[in-house]
Amino acid sequence: MSSAWFLARRLLFWRQTRRKLNRSAVLAVLGIAVGSAVLIMSLSILNGFESEVWDSLLRFEQQTVLLPRSPRADVKVVAEKLTTTGSKVQPYAERKLVVQSVEGYRLVTARIVADLSAHQEALGEAIIQDWPLSPSGNQVILGSMLADRLDLVPGDEVRLISPLDISLVNPKPPQVTAIVQAVYEFGMLDFDEAYLFTDFETAEQIVPRLSAYSGLTLDEQEVDAELLFTGMVDPADWDLRTWETDHSDLLTAMRMEKLGTTVVLFLIILVAAFNATSTMVMSVMEKYREIGILRSMGATRRFIKAVFLRQGLLIGLVGVGLGVGLGVAISWCQSVYPFIPGPAGIYSESGLPMDLRWWDVLIVLAGSLLISIGAAWYPARYAISIAPGQAVNYEK
Length: 396
Known about the structure:
This protein is α+β, with helices and mostly antiparallel strands. It folds into two domains: 3-57 and 250-392, no CATH class; 89-218, no CATH class. The chain is built from 15 helices and ten strands. The radius of gyration is 33 Å and the shape is elongated. The relative contact order is 0.18.
């Protein structure tokens, strides 16, 4: 151990009388430890919530969607072109429909897909109730909140009505009866209450011009828009959308929430650093004469400055080590062996979601250590300003 480190440790943690621990230094260490642990756990919770939202969106939304902009856009022709390139494309449509049961009715957005059974499998764990698949017949998949409001369970009959397709010839809105095939639940109000899924065979019975509202879904997670529009799709006739662009406001809000939480919780560490600054200033005042003796014996200003900067680094290393270790341990245990329950209806049944990311750990480590070293800057400047002759004759 170098002499600078030895003096930093002795001056910081031990008082001269009876070698008692410096309580102010211990409190500074505990403050940084608590701030680091809370910051790690808070970021892990935000990451876990963000991951759950993304997983729900990816199961519910299509990765990439091509929607027609003009009447010239031909869904069938473009689908054939994209199929020749190896792209997996499926027809897709959205339409406002009224779903009616014995208990009432609701206006919902119908997601119309090519194969309802395949889409049910894609929803995976989001399906909470289902009915044995039937090879024929009209079927729908409802959200849990929509099913609760209409008092429906798989196997019940509902009536689908298209109020937008009333004509002068037939003023009565077209309607069709369907069976509730399954019920899904994402824990998100916008999905569980406002959407249902059905197939083209069912929807075409009440929407005579369904092809005019259709688009194409692409299974690729990343699509090069320039390559897609070059010689394949006319950008004037088609609009390329992804789940990220459709939900950009939500994703931006989650990123801003994480940034704001990080800044606010770093303030806890900053407050603890102020305590460390006052502790080291008191240490300089207590060791005023000893510092003068060291200067008289040949210690340079650089050496004295290094001693007190190492004090700040020592506070940061001990505090951050304890805090990050505790935060990482709790976050990892919660992600592997969930023991903290989450609020019902918001998080998954496995408990409070926590996603530990090592990049966040490195940011907390680096930020906390920089704050700790910065806290030692003023005491170090104060220590090197002491005049040796005046300090040697100083009486406490």
